[in-house]
Specification:
38% helix, 24 strands, 5-stranded mixed β-sheet, 7-stranded antiparallel β-sheet, Helix Hairpins, OB fold (Dihydrolipoamide Acetyltransferase, E2P), D-amino Acid Aminotransferase, Chain A, domain 1
């Protein structure tokens, strides 16, 4: 169909208006006025008309986003107004200090209003418009001088080539962050992998790298977006007004901006964004806080390279670097041997990380992680920290490759391991999951541990073989009616067992630590740990240094404790036990009558079993050991005491007391 120049000119204007309106609704208002296919069809028609009538092409036409040949280099451009960065703060106290400093610099009685927005992780860029049309785009550079990246920036679909509105100032400067949304990044990487290409590292680096490509066609192939965060000109009364103007001009913003009249509300917003930011479409590492009034903001000036009237609150890092101090192997409840890196403590995503799972021998080989290495660790959500990468350039010269099988022999000399064909995990040879579970349950319920009456070997076998108990946590889910149906039980015995299990929920902390069956941790070590850390959470967070400070705990025991609390299965079990109401009780024994005294029992007692006698002593604050040392207070002897113990006590001048002396001791205490 033929069309006159006059008709084409009118049609071109209308097409541009409807295409720009679609772009504004889609990117800024997050709504669609038509399908993407329909919009593409209109763009195609506009392109054909401009091809037919080249004199109708204007710089603000939607067809002009990709233009020109590759550049030889970028031109340096001096910013009309310095592009500054923000000072980082990491706590409420630092924010309060920031406010206090500013309050001293303004007239007394000035009340601050706060403007907040999410801090996006991308490349800062300044856009300049003349008479409403995009003329130049400049990167931040060093804040004073940036690079002209106009040709690349024009390819970004959500940037208006012509500003909306009837009364646009002659010169407009908008600043923002060039980013790639997480969903777009994942889709792009999926295409890369499908094509056999290497996936991109992260959205931020890809966005920055795309803008600095000399060929604008490369930038056009990337799903870049510009998220506006400041309006330099025209001036606005408040930062909130500036955002409203940006949106009216057709710019997309984060939609996370808010205004608050108190710091307490700002802190609530920090908490809210901290809980929801992972669900946002773009990556973020913090929240920007500004004094909302722009006149006050400007009057406070700049110190160094940062404005006084704004800060960036940074959420805890998701990644960090640290050193591998050791690699220990944990034997889980299924018999699987899991390697764990013991790390120098470092804060990641808000919590102190002291160990990271290395999964299996293949993963250690893939990473080539060695004792002494500096590594990058990361934590997503609440999972166990993982080693992402080894920084081999920082590797000490004397490090050796980790020999997995040799480490198994050193750490578990009495066990034999096998790696089944087709599996990546080494397991204890000849022991099935059910066998290990039964053994763990028996120990958990034994007298040295939680002393759960009615949960002996035969009843453990009955519960496991019936399928009622598949883990220790299942004990606390048992119902009397379920147990009563088993062959070995009647209503009364079932009721007694379930009651005994319920009672164990508040067992002494030392008993609970013993029950966990941590390798090398017996009743006395458990008691020592209970007195030192006072809760399972504190023990779980203990560092190797803290453990080694405790008398009688050496490197092997410390490593075993660290390995236990680094095992994902163990941590999951502890979390489930807590949810089920298991809350061990702690009793401080430091003020008890026998606190600070150390005893050892040798031979058979008539009044008590050995374990009961030791429990009596510990309940009174005493330490009970298995060998005579110069710190032993007394050796308690029953029938047929060990010859070596009595001889050593005599040699060290340690008092030897009888069972009657022992009874008088505990009765008096």
């Amino acid at each position: 169909m033929k069309i006159s120049h006059e008709e084409a000119a009118d049609r071109v204007i209308k097409l541009r208006e409807i295409i720009n309106d679609y772009r504004y609704h889609y990117h800024v208002l997050d709504e669609s006025t038509m399908s993407e296919a329909a919009a593409d069809s209109l763009k195609h028609e506009l392109s054909q008309l401009e091809e037919q009538f080249p004199d109708l092409i204007t710089p603000d036409s939607p067809t002009q986003r990709v233009a020109g040949k590759p550049l030889d280099k970028f031109t340096k451009v001096k910013h009309e107004r310095r592009m500054i960065s923000l000072a980082d703060v990491f706590s409420e106290e630092e924010i309060k200090d920031w406010v206090s400093r500013n309050e001293k610099l303004v007239p007394k009685g000035t009340k601050f209003e706060y403007f907040t927005d999410i801090k996006m992780d991308g490349l800062a860029c300044s856009l300049h418009y003349e008479d409403g049309v995009l003329k130049q785009a400049v990167t931040r550079g060093d804040g004073l001088v940036g690079e002209d990246v106009t040709m690349n920036v024009r390819t970004i679909e959500n940037i208006p080539l012509k500003l909306r509105g009837d009364t646009i100032p002659r010169h407009v400067e908008a600043r923002g962050e060039i980013v790639i949304f997480k969903k777009d990044f994942d889709e792009l990487n999926a295409k890369q992998e499908k094509a056999g290409e290497k996936p991109f590292a992260n959205p931020r680096n890809l966005a920055a790298g795309s803008i600095r490509q000399l060929d604008p066609k490369i930038a056009a192939s990337r799903p870049l977006k510009f998220m506006a965060y400041d309006l330099v000109t025209p001036d606005s009364a408040t930062h909130h007004d500036a955002y409203e103007t940006l949106r009216s001009y057709g710019f997309q913003t984060s939609k996370q901006d808010k205004v608050f009249d108190s710091l307490s509300k700002v802190f609530q917003e920090i908490k809210h964004l901290g809980e929801t930011r992972q669900g946002l479409p773009f990556n973020t590492d913090g929240m920007v806080i500004k004094i909302n009034d722009r006149k006050t903001y400007d009057s406070l000036g700049i110190v160094g390279k940062t404005p006084r009237a704004a800060v960036a609150f940074k959420y805890p890092a998701e990644e960090s670097t640290t050193k591998v101090r050791d690699i220990v192997i944990s034997i889980g409840r299924t018999g699987a041997a899991t390697p764990v890196a013991i790390l120098d403590p470092v804060i990641v995503a808000g919590s102190t990380v002291k160990h990271a799972s290395l999964h299996n021998a293949d993963e250690i080989a893939r990473l080539d992680v060695r004792i002494g290495d500096t590594v990058i660790i990361y934590k997503a959500g609440d999972i166990i920290p993982q080693v992402k990468e080894v920084l081999t350039t920082l590797r000490p010269a004397d490090t050796k490759r980790f020999d997995y099988e040799e480490a198994l022999k050193e750490q578990y000399p009495e066990l034999e391991f096998v790696r089944p064909a087709g599996e990546v995990v080494y397991r204890v040879k000849g022991e099935t999951s059910d066998f290990i579970l039964k053994r763990s349950l028996e120990y958990y319920a034994s007298k040295p541990a939680l002393n759960i009456e009615g949960l002996g070997e035969k009843n453990v076998v009955a519960l496991v073989d019936s399928g009622l108990v598949k883990s220790i946590t299942d004990l606390y889910r048992l119902k009397k009616s379920q147990v009563a149906e088993l062959e070995r039980f009647a209503d009364l015995s079932a009721s007694n067992l379930v009651d005994a299990i319920e009672k164990s929920k508040t067992a002494p902390l030392a008993k609970f630590i013993t029950a966990l069956g941590i390798r090398h941790v017996g009743a006395q070590t458990a008691n020592t740990l209970a007195q030192r850390f006072k809760s399972i959470d504190n023990l779980k967070d203990a560092t190797e240094e803290e453990l080694l400070e405790i008398p009688d705990i050496g490197k092997i025991v410390a490593e075993s404790i660290l390995a236990y609390f680094a095992d994902e299965d163990n941590l999951q079990m502890l979390a489930e036990l807590e949810e089920l109401g298991v809350n061990p009780s702690f009793e401080d024994t430091s003020a008890l009558p026998l606190a600070g005294k150390s005893y050892i029992i040798s031979g058979t007692l008539d009044s008590y079993g050995r374990e009961e006698a030791e429990d009596e002593l510990r309940a009174l604050g005493a330490t009970v050991t298995s060998s005579v040392t110069k710190t032993t207070t007394a050796l308690i002897t029953g029938d047929k005491p060990g010859k070596s113990k009595t001889e050593k006590a005599a040699k060290l001048n340690i008092p030897v007391i009888t069972e009657q002396d022992f009874l008088k001791l505990i009765n008096k205490a």
